Amino acid sequence: MELGERFTLITGRTADQGQGLHEGKDSEAYRLATTLVEMNPEDMARLGIAEGQTVQVQTASGQTTALAHAGTLPSGMIFVPMGPTANELIGVETESTGMPPFKGLTAGVKHI
Amino acid sequence: MSRTIENVVCTFCGCLCDDIVVEVDEDENGNSGRIARMRKACANGRGLFTHYDPTPQPPTVDGRPVSWEEAVAEAARILDKADSPLIYGLSSTATEAQRKVVELADKVGAILDTTSSVCHGPSGLAMQAVGEPTCTLGEVRNRADLLIFWGCNPAVSHVRHFARYSALPKGTYTPEGRRGRTVVVVDVRPTASSRTADLFLQVAPGADFEALTALRALIQGKTVAADAVGSVPVSQLASLAEQMKSCRFGVVFMGMGLTQSRGRDMNVSELFTLVAELNQYTRFSVLPMRGHGNVTGADQVMTWLSGYPFAVSFARGYPSYGPGEFSAVDVLARGEADAALIVASDPLAHFPAAAARRLAQIPAIALDPVPSLTTQAARVVFPTACYGVDAAGTAYRMDGVPLRLRPVLRTARPTDADVLTQIIEAVKSC
């Protein structure tokens, strides 16, 4: 997959991810909470992506699929909750700190 | 019949709220059932207590229930046989167990890293580089009139922080509570926290360092020859600089927005330097928003015992420090670790896929009160007690204040410290 239009990918905690992990990381609640990609609504409309649609997300480190969800993000930014789905997109370059690049990666989004 | 316990410490996050009320169902002999009801805890904290199943479980080897002695022997065999064992985690266990982990790492010549390396490790590097202008949450509650939340979203991750420690409480010198404080949020996107702020500065992703440098210049009275820095209008930065210089006591709370973005420790060093310089004008402090309940304790214990907060190798017979070299993600990504002991954390859920895949390939031992992706894949699993729920211990709040954890349930699960002590003894006789 070509990256196509470039987005800045941010990963992080969400309230649902926090609740889902108490249910168990093999629970449906956790899977739903961590298998989504939040996008700016206008970016979704421009790319023809509907709410709840499965999209492919790719970075230089990997790719995954997630459900698109309109969020309060600036145009050009996407957000994936921390967890196994986000991990597929994160590289292991820590720049001598131990910290992988969990925020600020360049990513592409495509509906499938 | 139920028993009510007051002033319980919740260990879900670094807030360590110590005012929780827990009701436990018990039979007529005083045997604990599950936790029935809770008051004052946030949703995250409630989940920690009410979803916990304290039923004693046997340890497993390759998914097969075994005796504790057999599991300890297998764990010791794995660690003894490994050329380069990795020990990782520590953030959700008690200080007593963390001490044992360091002892074990020393004994087997392991690489020892904590969840700090994927959390506030860069803040640790910044502390080492430029110092840490710190304070306690009690000082914030009673004195702070300007609060700046930079790259963090406590409304989601530290839910009671605003109410107990920062924005809302009425303290000795802050009798008006929220009305007497100014709250500023700096982030790359609007959040549940920014919506409660008096001022929200939206900085471009990866541009925190530039915005902080511009703030330092403006505070020193210099002119910034640009309309905006990191997408933040310089007029807004100048106004914030003035507020920072003229407040009575300001505090910055900072999070992963700085440590996980481009610049990492350099971002935090710039912020710590800015805060140190502000003390020429007024009183100002900065506190990292520590995530897991005792990740601050992990830093403390590691530093007492090895001299370094995380990413330490004992392979040479003495502690060597090396973020990027001895940090878990790097060690796994390079395929260097050939066995792992994971204590109270879930790296298979939170490491980049390439590092997680390597961890899933090597023989692993996991100590955890609850099932996780890591316990599912580990060869040896010890279902231990949960400190603060069914075991006593010590944890450090995000501001470095240690609090005693009392068990609210009476159960028979062994603690992490118990199991680690047995593994240390077994390793000695390998």
- Domains counted in the coordinates of chain A: how many? 1
Main pleated sheet of chain A: 6 strands, mixed, barrel
Instruction: Report mean pLDDT of chain B, rounded to a whole number.
Output: 97
Note the beta-strand portion of chain A. Answer: 25-35%
Per CATH, the class of the largest domain in chain B reads: Alpha Beta
Described by the principal axes of the CA atoms, the overall outline of chain A is globular
* Count of alpha and pi helical runs of chain A: 4
Task: Characterize the main sheet of chain B.
Answer: 9 strands, mixed
* Order of SSEs of chain A: EHHEHEEEHE
Largest interface: A-B, 41 and 54 residues
Describe the structure.
The complex is a heterodimer of chains A (112) and B (430). Chain A contains four helices and six strands. With 112 residues, chain A is an alpha/beta fold. Chain A has a six-stranded mixed beta barrel. Chain A is globular. The N and C termini of chain A lie close together (11 Å). With 430 residues, chain B is α/β, with parallel strands linked by helices. Chain B has helices spanning 43-50, 68-81, 95-108, 121-130, 137-143, 154-157, 161-164, 208-219, 234-246, 256-259, 265-278, 295-306, 328-333, 347-350, 353-361, 373-377, 416-428; strands at 2-8, 20-26, 32-39, 60-61, 64-65, 85-89, 111-114, 146-150, 182-187, 199-202, 228-229, 232-233, 249-254, 283-288, 312-313, 320-321, 339-343, 364-367, 380-382, 393-396, 402-405.
